[in-house]
Amino acid sequence: MTTTGAEPRRRLVAEIWIVLGLSLGQSAVYAVISLAGKLTAGRPLAQQTAVLNASRSPRPYLDLSYQIADIVFTLVPVLLVIWLLSEGGRPALRILGIDRSQPARDLGYGVALAALIGIPGLGLYFAGRALDLTATVVPADLGTYWWTVPILVLQAVKNAALEEVVAVGYLITRLERLGWTTWMTLGSSALLRGSYHLYQGFGPFLGNAVMGLVFAEWYRRRRRVAPLIVAHTVLDVVAFVGYQTLGGALGLR
User: Fold this and answer.
1) With contact defined as beta carbons under 8 Å apart, do 188 and 219 qualify?
2) Angle, vertex CA 182, rays to CA 179 and CA 187, nearest 5
3) N or C: which end of the chain has fewer CB within 10 A?
């Protein structure tokens, strides 16, 4: 469905900017600033680090409180998007393709997508490091507590829900309603995903933009975000928990 009329279009464009300003668009701006800081720090990009899950306090339970608060408040834009898409009486979760209609298929496709993206992504990361286009990415830098692994899993789920619902399901749905062409819609989703990873360097920007293009085309064809959330969760859990538990043994930290 395409929106017609100047006022509905203006409201829809304003809505998109507000949603992005409260979520991934804001992250993209900070990522650009962070990259600018790294590029002007007087050291090669490969010698600098980007920490994904950092400790917020040396006091374990205070740190846990910060981590939980981060997860909860980061998910608020997801709730906002679900509320905004619930217009016209059609359930937003059905529009996004997040339901229990085909759990086995969603899980299978999600794991397959994770393998499709994850394996080439590792190669691109190491190539970026070798070419000084990518910072050293530290997936987790939390203490070793009883809650560390559960929090990292929840962080992975949070990232997956936020990015796939907002950057894919919501953005594509809204841009299609504005009458954007297929390539403009897919490109915008992919560019957004790449841009909020710029704090890690140019390699992750490119890798995530390609991932964004694949995921956006998946949603355009299948209209289901659920497998994308599964895939993203698998990728992040492997990175976060694997680094936290095996990083020392492998000499990664």
Assistant:
1) no
2) 110
3) N
pLDDT digits 0-9 by tens, 94-149? 999 999 999 999 999 999 999 999 988 889 898 999 999 999 999 999 989 999 99
pTM: 0.94
Q: What is the Cβ-side half-sphere exposure of residue 220, based on CA atoms within 13 angstroms?
A: 23
**At 55, phi and psi to the nearest 5?**
-70, 140
Residue type, 172: I
**Residue 151: pLDDT above 50?**
yes
34 contacts: CB under 8 Å, gap ≥ 6: 50, 198, 199
Q: What is the pLDDT of residues 36-71, one digit of tens each?
A: 999 999 999 999 999 999 999 999 999 999 999 999
DSSP code for 139: S
User: How many angstroms separate the Cα of 98 from the Cα of each of 101, 102, 190, 219?
Assistant: 9, 10, 21, 11
The rounded distance, in Å, linking the Cα atoms of 40 and 48 is 12
Answer whether 137's CB lies under 8 Å from 45's CB: no
Residue 251 has pLDDT above 50, yes or no: no
Find residue 201's DSSP bridge partners. 134
Q: What is the 3-state secondary structure (H, E, C) of 31-86?
A: HHHHHHHHHCCCCCHHHCEEECCECCCCCHHHHHHHHHHHHHHHCHHHHHHHHHCC
